[in-house]
Amino acid sequence: MTEHRQPRLALTASSLRWSCIAMILVGLIPAHAQTSKQSDSGGQGVTFDRVIAVVNRQTILASDLEVEMQISVLDPTGNLKEKETAPQALDRLISRTLIQQQIQQEYVPAAQPTPTEIAARLQDVRKDLPACIRADCESDEGWNKFLAQHDLTPGGVENYVRNRMEILSFIEARFRQGIRISPEDIETYYRETLLPQYPAGQTIPPLPQVSARIEEILLQQRVNELFSSWLANLRKQGQVEVLDPALQTNADAGDGATKE
């Protein structure tokens, strides 16, 4: 007997928001937040760190990249079967640095999430994170083991969640205002995208029942389109130099990156 599953309404608003913009919001740890590794020699610490990229005169260190790759396990859109490469992580660091610089220039205050909101989002991470599927992260014991396995701390993860929420708040405030979804847009999505998902003979929800969800999905799609275009312009206009040839990607040559 064939089981007919209820078609999903594409993506829920929250999953769309987190998945489409998540690729540049993984770490969200301030530059140089990690202490450089040291080796004792004659009782004196010797710092081993180096600048690997410069974004509009702001440096990115090798230690920043280490942190980025370490905390990328918290990316809800991550592919468990494919290990992220250092150039991919650096590319995300560069994009996020440009965004944070622009936020400072525009003086757009990001809404500060409350401790309750942070705790709720953290619970979502523990429940929905792909890497937590077999780790029982919903239990405190499983979560603590997961953090230890990936060399993460509760404070570092909380900081990740807080900063991610702040930047998402900026993106929503910066790009969502003024977007209008017409009844025609909603009806077109319903007719051309939603209805074809239903097998013959299965009950189809009427448009009024799903119109609010469709409107939210279309809003998030528009936000992501505007955000993507804005970010592409930032990269084109910015001065980006990757100093380590091993970390360069094909995008570096076509991004409008320049050397000073």
**How far is it from the N-terminal to the C-terminal residue, by CA?**
66 Å
Strand/helix succession: HEEEEHHHHHHHEH
Mean pLDDT: 80
Question: Any idea what the CATH architecture is?
Answer: Orthogonal Bundle
Secondary structural class: mainly alpha
CATH H-level superfamily: Porin chaperone SurA, peptide-binding domain
Uncertain spans:
10-20, 29-41, 253-260
What does this entry look like structurally?
- With about 260 residues, this protein is mainly α.
- The protein is about 50% helix and about 10% strand.
- The protein is built from 9 helices and 5 strands, in the order αββββαααααααβα.
- Helix 1 (about 15-20) packs parallel to helix 8.
- The longest helix has about 30 residues, at about 205-235.
- The termini are far apart.
What is the fold's blueprint, element by element?
Blueprint: H1 13-21, E1 37-41, E2 44-48, E3 51-55, E4 58-61, H2 62-71, H3 86-106, H4 115-128, H5 140-149, H6 154-175, H7 183-194, H8 207-237, E5 240-242, H9 250-254
Antiparallel strand pairs: 1-2, 3-4, 3-5
Helix pairs in contact: 1-8, 2-3, 4-6, 7-8
